[in-house]
Amino acid sequence: MTRVLTVGMHLADVLGRHVESIPDGQGIQLLDEIRLTVAGTAAATAVNLAHLGADVSTVGVVGSDALGSFITSQMGEAGVSTMNLRIDPSSPTSATILPIRKDGSRPALHVVSTNGKLGEQDLHAELLEGISVLHLGGTGLLPGIDGQPSANFLRTAKKLGIVVTMDFIPSRSSLAADRSAIEPCLPYVDYLLPSDDDAYYIAGSGNDRQQAIDYYLNAGVKNVLITMGPDGVSISDTNNRDIRIPAFDVDVIDTTGCGDAFSAGFIASLIEGAETRDAANFALACGSLMATGLGSDAVVLDRKRVDEFRTTNTRRPL
């Protein structure tokens, strides 16, 4: 089977819904649901890929605590190879608290912790043996490998003929710092898969999608796929700019993990030989399905379920 390697963010999400405000002082707000899930742009993507039938392994760092054990066991049960998921006992496992609003949006309260322990020593060339697709997820919040270490690893992958996909999450502490984390990687990226907010921020384009597309293509990215939530996805390469595919019309519960589900669906389609537009269509179905529940594992993606969803759900207008 085609092998996929995901590298980057592994964390636990604690999600609660619905939260409209944080109570003052020692106040309490009663919620409908609280969940603990495996998350992160490398971890959640890997789990979804495994559910979609891909042979996938992952590289990252977790702590020797309960959250680290949870992530490792859940990923293993899903079918992801975790032999290169390193345990670092010096720090707690990375985690995020997500108060989910009624419209599905959510702020994020995040601790980098063990994701900051992922270092250049973890990115050895032997990891790439037999790999067809490399997905780098979480650039911008991976201080140990952001910038040149990641770029070097991607360059090695490209020399081996590996397809490179990438998603990033800027820290937003400094645009210059975020760009220094992301820009060195871009010349080696075949498919860039950012959200619209993140894509526009790094490009410095305001809400100008065309300017953002030009920024990434000029930086060397071969294909830019900007996910836009209810507005679908925009696909661009050097020959075709801003080809739009509409999103599916669903009742959104939570947008957590939708981007990772999109990435997984896109990669799963690529390794089966799909063209970019067809892969993006399948990926949109995966992301839309994930929005119908709470958390990055709200829906167990499998081919039958995704295909049924695609044939029975209508699209939103462009």
UniProtKB/TrEMBL annotation:
GO terms for molecular function: kinase activity. Keywords: Kinase, Transferase. GO terms for cellular component: cytosol. The keyword Transferase applies. It holds the Pfam family PfkB. Residues 1-296 form the Carbohydrate kinase PfkB domain. InterPro entries: PfkB_dom, Ribokinase-like. SUPFAM superfamilies: Ribokinase-like. Gene3D superfamilies: 3.40.1190.20. CDD domains: KdgK. This is Sugar kinase.
